[in-house]
Amino acid sequence: MNHGNVSPEIAKGLLALHERIAASNIPSSKLDESINIATWNIREFGKKKRTEPAIHYIAEILGQFDLIGVVELRDNLTDLGRVLKILGSYWRAVYSDMIPDAGGNRERIAFVYDKRAVVFNGLAAEASEPRKKKGFEYLPESSFWRSPYMASFKSGSFDFVAFTTHIRWGEGEEPRKFELERLADWIEAKRQEEHKEDKDLIVMGDFNIPSKTSPLFKAITKHGLQLPKALAGLEHGSNLAKDKRYDQILHYSDYPDTFTNKGGILDFYIDADHIKDLFPGMTKEPFTYQMSDHLPLWMQMNTDIEGFELGQILQS
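and the corresponding structure tokens:
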């Protein structure tokens, strides 16, 4: 990572951030053996220009992982470019187009990845809802507020499709539940396709689900999407108050052992009293627009699955 000749203030902030990263106990990944994936809603990233310290801190956090599904990237990509420059020449991003209406909020979804650990496999597409013929046209009966985005990747001997979404907030939970159910149906239909890109789906993003016991969680998991064991037992949420499970990493994996027992939240915030270590004199609300009001949710995956594949051949 190339932080360069930063100011003493940024250097001090980075040292404080290093302590918070260390407390998250994120294990190192191993080339062709494991990767660390994460999902992070970076609040309105690109709408309000980030300060120089924020760009360095965001880059430092992203650099702890090999593949990150980024939510709330906006139409202006300038700050993403600033972050990628610090991450270095091995880092890449693939991202969706923005949606200009109020529901789309001019948001994009991006996959930011280290090409030394993860190879982009060619597929990058938005999820479009099923269409039906009406007269001479083929039209969807409904639509996602913000189209989910997916891309195919390979790491080691493991091919997979990463799928990231930002579910609507709206007025009340019922419209959100309806969108989650439709999304679950779409993902299941994708999984059942005869000529799908890959059978392993990693589904992540900001689902705006308050808890695992919520009807909203039951809506997205109605076809069998699962929480990896390492994330199922988390005591804290991914919002700054750490009491809501808005962000999720879910899977339909043919190789359950690819999900290790290592996962969690990277808490760069701690509490309002610790903001001064990164941004002296700043209060919580401005802090959320420099960093975010969400914490990254992460998971380590085994990518050397040759032994699993050979075992399945023997069993069959």
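(Above: one complete record from the training split.) The first strand starts at residue 34 and ends at 45.
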